[in-house]
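F.,

This is the one I mentioned.
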């Protein structure tokens, strides 16, 4: 069993920055691909960014490339999402997810999920 706890969401003006954090329980965190998904009202949940177990391979949705950065610290069982140049369309609930058996960050589906953290970007 893996438990994921997100933090770092909030309200920010367009052009601003936020950093989301996700702390995972379990001693095998370093074995998991990790990712951040988001879901806006009346929209499907989408994969925003993913990272493989070592941090050597990442994936970004086209809508966030060049603005968001995903990275992890396996010693702290934590994955981060640095979000810069935020836009109102980035407003959503952001979820941290872990894939136990999938190694490709682009193909993440989420075996375990956090509770979500709200990000609101005002114009």
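My design for it:
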């Amino acid at each position: 069993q893996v438990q994921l706890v997100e933090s770092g969401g909030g309200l920010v003006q367009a052009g601003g920055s936020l950093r989301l954090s996700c702390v995972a329980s379990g001693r095998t965190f370093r074995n998991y691909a990790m990712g951040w998904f988001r879901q806006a009202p009346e929209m499907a949940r989408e994969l925003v960014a993913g990272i493989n177990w070592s941090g050597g391979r990442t994936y970004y949705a086209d809508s966030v490339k060049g603005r968001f950065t995903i990275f992890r610290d396996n010693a702290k069982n934590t994955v981060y999402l640095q979000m810069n140049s935020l836009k109102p369309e980035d407003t959503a609930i952001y979820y941290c997810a872990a894939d136990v058996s999938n190694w490709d960050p682009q193909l993440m589906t989420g075996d375990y999920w956090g509770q979500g953290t709200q990000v609101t970007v005002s114009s």
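The CA atoms of residues 39 and 45 lie 4 Å apart.

Talk soon.
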